[in-house]
Specification:
heterotetramer, B: mainly alpha, two-stranded antiparallel sheet, 19 helices, 2% strand, C: mainly alpha, 5 helices, 78% helix, 0% strand
């Protein structure tokens, strides 16, 4: 949380990126504490790895210092606090943290834990749920990645056919 | 070419599915053979069957149209990627409509959103980039709100399957968490559906996107988002949404204000595509108004208007695409005299435009009539006034284009402009013709819509 | 190229990259018993390539991973996932019902999950590489 | 007691507020994306904390005979998917930012608006 606040205040974007990478690592640590090792693994690899690299390479292509003066936007503050207020209202009826009798724990999940290894032969329940029980979600997820890949290619490459010709010219010149 | 075949096939399948659903009741399909709520299922009833047909019809027409337009507006080396992206967008939209699993909706929502961000950014104008970025930020916030809503629901019910969720939610209606979940889901969906006042991203996105993308998004994307709203009203139970919560009143007021503001802004626009984009916001207002009224006629009208508006708006955006292809701009001043050189395009535009206004004998009239009747039934007279006023405003903004096209002297160079290619005209007339046909004989869509409305309102007291 | 002078960096990178690749493979194939799986493995695998690109420059990376190869792999991963799912259709089961892929239900599930995770890994890593290279090459062309 | 029992939600909400605030207020587009990431991470944290059971352990079945309490695997799966979605979105957003910088010469929201009014 402290890191997150620092991110608001920091104006140098490179420092911000470093802080956000640190934030992801902390997040990953929290996930381990919450028993979500797979998620922690992904968060560490993505947040502290890929996203940081991408942010940095985007910064190389753009400017790295924020020129806008820091000012407090009251409307935004009110809006966020209102959202948070609604959430506070909402979570007040949720079961307490770690409660084994909560509905989330009782309805669908137990079957995965009991049956997953028998039905799929795989001890990591997360993997078997991911790939089999909710395999279609994962298919969708893969499609999202694929979409992003094509999207970036569309935006960032100057088109396949055109690229090759100027490159050859470059080589000839040098 | 392949893309065209696929969309037509998908359209055909969606029609078959719809008829099957109408005859035999809901179809369910379990992925991986796991029975829900453990696995993910597809579940089709009259409501989403109808939405699938809307998406199928519009996309089939748009893809028929696409060839020359894409050829002009998208760089050569990018065209195959562009089509791939369109296909992914459609896959996402179909998926959102068809799935019976709340989290699966989120995944497909993101497929469709990512594809549409990239597609919008392909517009020629550099403002397309900022429009796409704005859409991306708001869209992601919307999707994350949606995710929070699902998370809260999951914490309360322990399931993600929609049918299962609907059953389990009944016992805990009074819970504050359920209320909050509903609020977050509604706000998230409203951001995606560009419901006033969350329409901020829409005009820019539609105005600067490539023509094909504008037509596709205008005809399908927001409709699917509205469908999601209906679906979640169903999950929570209509009695809960309308009676326990002021959802109906809130939606109606927002919709009414939105209709008026958007229609007035439309009149002030100088770019035809931007004008039509504002008109889209207004028409979404009608749909939401119908849903907000919460009685049988109103919801039927809302669902019917989804269909009719998709046809008409798809057609006018396609007409603008044809104009873009031939003269390279859609600025209203440059449209002068095009009625003479591109008669077929402009006739199609006019037919669909009349439907947008809601002139009798067009499809737009039928659904507006339903909504007005519903408002009278509820005794909400100010709404009737709003509907009439906005229709007059619509006359003004459509007239601005028609006036330029037919009653102004052709601008310099207009003699050299040719009529759009045959395939484009065919696609345009497919939509425009349908919108006239269903205005004269509206029995088919109206009967489906009223069946769908009956499903939505099943638990109404 | 800036990186040419950094001898230590280059040597260390050369040492590290095979290890990272190996670790990526381990995560990929060990996701069934420990934490990890196709996605994490794909990211780690891509990280190796990105490290290579950082140290040796994107041009050299393109020699290892030319554009056609990466974009083909992107699609192949999705197709692998899809065809694994579709294969069960051939056995008159539902989409993605892996149990029928083998005579034994559990073995079929195992096989299906393995193939699917492989598809995820391939697509994720190639997309990540493609995205990074798209950024990096933009720098070169300025 | 109630406040202590639900402290995970309090942390989630505070983080979410910070993220959302950054998204709305900061004019720098890169910073908006970082804010969006924080916002999304906070939601991930919420999902994961819903799945946590006290004294539970990671949902990988062990064969040492003992009866272990496993935490709920389902939210983990969902969040894995959501993380992938988030990183895809960020990548696409960053490439948009690069393109915006190329055509406007800035990534400050207000400067872009000025440039849009000008042409």
């Amino acid at each position: 949380m402290v890191v997150a606040i620092a991110i608001i205040r920091q104006r140098s974007l490179i420092a911000t990126v470093m802080l956000s990478s640190f934030f992801s690592l902390l997040m990953a640590g929290t996930f381990v504490l919450l028993d979500a090792v797979d998620v922690a693994f992904a968060e560490a690899a993505v947040g502290a790895g890929i996203t940081t690299v991408l942010l940095l390479s985007a910064l190389v292509l753009t400017s790295s210092v924020e020129v806008q003066p820091l000012k407090t936007n009251w409307l935004a503050l009110v809006l966020t606090i209102a959202t948070a207020g609604v959430l506070f209202y909402g979570v007040s009826d949720l079961p307490t943290f770690g409660d084994a009798a909560a509905p989330a724990q009782r309805h669908v999940a137990p079957r995965y834990l009991e049956m997953a290894e028998i039905e799929t032969g795989i001890p990591n329940v997360v993997t078997s749920v991911l790939a089999s029980y909710r395999g279609y979600d994962t298919f969708g997820e893969l499609t999202v990645v694929f979409t992003a890949g094509i999207g970036v290619l569309l935006l960032m490459t100057p088109g396949v056919r055109r690229r090759k010709t100027p490159k050859k010219q470059d080589e000839n010149v040098t | 070419m392949l893309a065209l075949v696929v969309t037509w096939a998908a359209f055909a399948i969606s029609l078959v599915l719809l008829f099957q659903v109408l005859n035999d009741g809901p179809i369910r399909y379990f992925f991986g053979g796991w029975a829900p709520p453990w696995g993910i299922e597809y579940r089709i009833d009259a409501l989403n069957g109808f939405v699938l047909v809307i998406v199928g019809f519009v996309s089939a027409a748009v893809l028929l149209f696409a060839g020359p337009s894409v050829g002009k507006e998208i760089r050569e080396g990018h065209q195959h990627l562009f089509y791939a992206m369109v296909m992914l967008l459609l896959a996402g939209l179909y998926g959102m409509a068809i799935t019976g699993d709340a989290f699966n909706v989120f995944v497909f929502l993101e497929i469709a959103s990512l594809a549409s961000y990239a597609l919008i950014a392909m517009g020629k104008d550099r403002r397309a980039l900022t429009a796409a970025f704005q859409y991306l930020v708001l869209g992601t916030v919307g999707a994350t709100f949606f995710l929070i809503g699902i998370g809260l629901l999951y914490a309360m019910t322990g399931t993600l399957n929609m049918v299962d969720m609907a059953e389990r939610i009944h016992g805990i209606h009074g819970s504050r968490t359920v209320l909050t979940a509903f609020a977050f889901l509604t706000v998230g969906i409203a951001l995606k559906a560009a419901v006033f006042p969350m329409h901020y991203w829409l005009p820019g996105a539609y105005a600067y996107a490539p023509s094909v993308v504008s037509a596709l998004l205008a005809g399908t994307a927001t409709k699917v988002a509205v469908y999601l709203l209906l679906r979640f009203i169903m999950i929570f139970g209509a009695d809960f949404a309308y009676v326990a919560l002021p959802l109906g009143a809130t939606l109606t007021v927002l919709a009414a204000v939105g209709i008026l503001i958007a229609s007035s802004s439309a009149i002030l626009q100088n770019d035809a595509k931007r004008l039509l984009a504002f008109s889209s916001v207004a028409h979404l207002g009608y749909i939401i108004l119908g849903i907000g009224l919460g009685n049988d006629t109103g919801v039927t009208g809302g669902i019917l208007h989804m269909f009719n508006h998709a046809l008409a708006k798809g057609a006018v955006f396609l007409a603008m695409g044809a104009v873009m292809l031939q003269i390279g701009t859609t600025h209203i001043n440059r449209l002068q005299g095009l009625g003479r050189v591109m008669p077929w395009t402009m006739a199609g535009f006019t037919a669909a435009g009349l439907s947008l206004i809601g002139v009798p004998l067009t499809a737009g009239f039928v659904s507006k009539w339903y909504i007005v009747t519903a408002a009278i039934d509820r005794g909400w007279w100010p709404l009737v006034l709003v509907m009439v006023a906005s229709s007059i405003l619509a006359v003004f903004y459509i007239w601005r284009i028609i006036d330029a096209v037919y009653f102004s002297a052709p601008g310099p160079g207009a003699e050299n402009v040719k009529e759009a290619p045959m395939t484009m005209l065919a696609a345009l007339w497919m939509l425009a013709g349908a919108s006239v046909y269903f205005g004269i004989d509206s029995s088919f869509p109206a009967s489906v819509a009223s069946k769908a409305a009956a499903i939505v309102l099943a638990q109404m007291p | 190229m800036m990186a040419t002078e950094h001898l230590i960096l280059r040597v260390v990178a050369k040492l590290l990259i095979p290890l990272i690749l190996l670790f990526g493979l381990y995560v990929q194939f060990h996701g069934e018993t420990g934490p990890g799986g196709g996605f994490q493995a794909g990211v780690i695998f891509a990280a190796a390539f990105i490290l290579y690109a950082l140290v040796f420059g994107p041009e050299n990376t393109r020699r290892v991973a030319p554009e056609w190869l990466i974009s083909t792999l992107m699609a192949i991963g999705v197709l692998l996932y899809f065809s694994t799912g579709a294969a069960s259709l051939l056995y008159r089961a539902n989409f993605l019902e892996y149990g029928v892929l083998s005579t034994d239900f559990v073995a079929g599930q195992k096989l299906g999950i393995f193939l699917v995770e492989l598809g995820v890994g391939i697509t994720v890593s190639s997309v990540m590489i493609a995205i990074y290279l798209a950024f990096a090459e933009r720098q070169g062309s300025g | 007691m109630w406040i202590l029992g639900t402290y995970n939600y309090w942390i989630f909400i505070t983080l979410m507020m910070i993220g959302l605030y950054i998204v709305i207020v900061r004019g720098n587009l890169v910073k908006k994306i970082i804010g969006l990431n924080i916002f999304q991470s906070s939601v991930f944290l919420f999902f994961i904390s819903v799945g946590k059971i006290s004294d539970g352990t990671a949902p990988i079945i062990l064969h040492d005979g003992g009866e272990a309490i496993y935490s709920n695997p389902l939210p983990h799966v969902l969040i894995l998917t959501a993380i992938v979605v988030a990183v895809s979105t960020s990548a696409l957003a960053l490439s948009l930012i690069v393109r915006i910088h190329e055509s406007y010469g800035t990534i400050q929201e207000d400067l872009i608006r000025e440039a849009e009014r000008a042409p």
